[in-house]
Amino acid sequence: MSIDPLEKWLASDVHDPSDFPKSATTLRDLDGSLRCNICGELFSAPVTLGCGHCFCSVCVREAIQVKAECPTCRKTTNESHIRSNPQMEAAVEGWRNSRALVLRLCLEEEKRRSAPACAPSTISSTIKKRKRSPDSSSSPTTPEASNERPDKRANGPSSSSQEVTIIASADLVNCPICQKRVQMKRVNSHIDNGCRSPSSSDIERTRSKPAQAQKNAWSKILDRNVSGKGKAKERDGDCAPLPKASYQVLKDKQVKDLLVDQQLPTTGDRNAWIARHQRWVLIWNANLDKQPEQRKTISELRAELRRWEEGRSKAKKAPVVEDAVEYEKLNKAQFDRLIAAARPKNSRDTQTQTPADKPPDEGKENGGNDDDDDDVIVLD
Amino acid sequence: MSLPKETERLVADPAPGITATPHEDNLRYFDVTIQGPDGSPFQSGVFRLELFLPEEYPMAPPKVRFLTKIYHPNIDKLGRICLDILKDKWSPALQIRTVLLSIQALLSAPNPDDPLATDVAKHYKEDEKDAQRVSREWTEQYAMA
């Protein structure tokens, strides 16, 4: 049995609390507690209901449309109880930005602890060892303690030496982004390259933050503010939530006008219009639950709506068969093959075990349960 | 949307006594096994189930069915399961893992007052000892690998 597609897809960039090693339970808990119970993602526009439970705005609005209760505790609720939770949003944003680093450190730490300490017999490594000794002697070695160690300390002993170059430590600075040790004159090109340029790894930490790095850090912060303001301005006029419409009492023309008001496409039939407008109101209002600087632009929202409709129509179109007879003729070979494949499976299912597992019992069980063999149906 | 993550979690960190493996050609379709809980008539049996996640999941519940024959008042002979969270008590905050754990719990605590297999439920209500004996027999006959 080939599980290639599965493996490929498991290896794809899906984040989950289980990314962290089993020993790091606290980090797993932290990662899990910043995720929406509905979609399993880190909260996007977190909102709180009257009961205090927190979800992504889009997820809970969608859930409430189906059933007006809290998905976690089932307490009756409605959209008017939704309150945005900017503190949680800030916490999630912080975690989102530091997660990769923490995960890397955590995995390195795990690797370091599981592998026996093998010291490469080069001069550079002995230098490195000696210089680091005060730090590593003070660092705790029990697994529990090392999990709770602050990042900075964990960084020291964990990043093991692969390509150790000897550079006078005065020349080295911390990259403000990835925290790697970089030669000061190279720090700009290092950052420009997205932190990929070779960093001289971990010789010794110097506390002094050079002016260049500081300048970079400041400009990063300032730049972000500037762009945030710009974005907010762009959307200034239209920050009011959209009201829900009661479509049942509206005539076709009025439903269409709702779309026209929002400059949305008016393709499809009445049902398509309603679904489109409903979704638009949902993602629009969910977007307003984000902090202004995090919000998506209108064109981004339009693109999101388009993707949602495409996904829906794809899912809907699949089972539609225009001409059943023609379809049957066209796919006869495939159907025959499936029927042939299903026959042995059918008898196997009622026996509840594969013949290969226990061939001697096969006949006996078959005999006892002939009357049940036709009971197997296919799940709809 | 939430599908890959949840599958990964299931595969990476399965609940005790439960396995769920997605089909390679349809990642919404899972082969499931549940071990009969200790202390129940289904003890030491391994029951096969199929689980399908509809397009609307998680806003709609997954569809689950026993493939292994089982003598239980809330599971009929087609393998359909009478469990509130699979129907009107579904919540999008529930997950595949919680659903399967609930089914395992249902094996420990049959509820003949809300039956799906009426004859089995009647048996359980009239003579629980004898009904449990039949459940044990069926487990030995169908659910022992």
TrEMBL record, chain A:
GO molecular function, a single term: ubiquitin protein ligase activity
**Pfam families per the UniProt record, alphabetical:** zf-C3HC4_2
Stretches of Acidic residues bias are at 368-380
UniProt keyword Iron-sulfur present? no
Q: Where is the composition biased (Basic and acidic residues)?
A: 358-367
Its Enzyme Commission number(s) read: 2.3.2.27
Chief localisation class: nucleus
Lineage: superkingdom = Eukaryota
Annotated segments matching region Disordered: 117-162, 189-216, 338-380
Family to which the UniProt record says this protein belongs: Belongs to the RAD18 family.
Q: Which PANTHER family match?
A: E3 UBIQUITIN-PROTEIN LIGASE RAD18
- Name of the protein described by the UniProt record: Postreplication repair E3 ubiquitin-protein ligase RAD18
Lineage, uppermost ranks: Eukaryota, Fungi, Dikarya, Basidiomycota, Agaricomycotina
From TrEMBL, chain B:
Query: Signal as a keyword?
Result: no
Q: Which Pfam families match?
A: UQ_con
Write down the EC number. Answer: 2.3.2.23
Instruction: List, from the UniProt record, the residues annotated as the active site of this protein.
Output: C82
Residue stretches making up the UBC core domain: 1-144
Q: Which PROSITE patterns does the protein's record reference?
A: UBC_1 (PS00183), UBC_2 (PS50127)
Q: Which domain of life is it from?
A: Eukaryota
Q: Which controlled-vocabulary keywords does the entry list?
A: ATP-binding, Nucleotide-binding, Transferase, Ubl conjugation pathway
Q: Name one GO molecular function term.
A: ATP binding
> Sorted alphabetically, which SMART domains does this protein's record hold?
UBCc (SM00212)
> What family is this protein classified in?
Belongs to the ubiquitin-conjugating enzyme family.
Q: What is this protein called?
A: E2 ubiquitin-conjugating enzyme
Species annotation: Heliocybe sulcata
